[in-house]
Sequence to fold (251 residues):
Amino acid sequence: MSLLSEDGEVRIVNLAQTLRTSEMTIRRDLEALEMEGMARRVRGGAISSISRSYEPPLQQRELNEHEAKVSIGRAAADLLRDGEIAILDVGTTTLEMARAINRRQALTIVAASLPIALELGQKPEIRTLVIGGIVRQGELSLIGQRAENFYSDLNCDTVFLEVAGITAEKGLTEYNLEDARVKQVALRAARRCVVLADATKLGKVAFATVADIDVVDILITDASPSHPIIKALEDHDIEMIHVKPNYEELK
Fold:
């Protein structure tokens, strides 16, 4: 199920090799998963029964990989320089970044979500701009034509982007088409792109394409340098920042 949730599909031959068991055993296991409604059998393997457009609730995502997100957010905040103009994309990891920002002078930050705007609004040293648009229920991101138009006359230094999935072949992908469109115009408004992605995002392909992998300048992740997706990105001239979650500190 872990492999299926990451890739969206699995092959019987590959599973037998990875799990060191027979193909007959894998077939029986896939049949059991199909009976439980967790997978759908296809020729030679199975695909996930969960749609690529399914987005877990915001409250659930805040709890998932929380320690990794805190560490990634802190590393992203450390990249900010005094006087920088930055865009903070919607997401639970960028929210942790907003919480981690301190003692930076004359920062201007464009917020694409209400929770991030509220967090930054408590920091007097930061000038916060909130994009317009329609509030997306549950997610509290801002979407629609007004949100997209907000970026048209902005020239920012860095966009800190969070996505649902990242692969070398499909690039950056997102669950929701409207969120993906806002991310695309945010990318065009900045000179540098920093992607915040915990290890669960690597190798995953979601519904809507945001951009090719070559737009990424820096990737901040808790994934090991030996992770297969990290290895696959080595030829794309992306700077990698690897963090280690501090589980003891967050108990």
About this structure: The domain at 2-48 is CATH 1.10.10 (Arc Repressor Mutant, subunit A). The chain has two domains: 2-48, 58-242. The chain has a mean pLDDT of 88. The two ends are 28 Å apart (CA to CA).
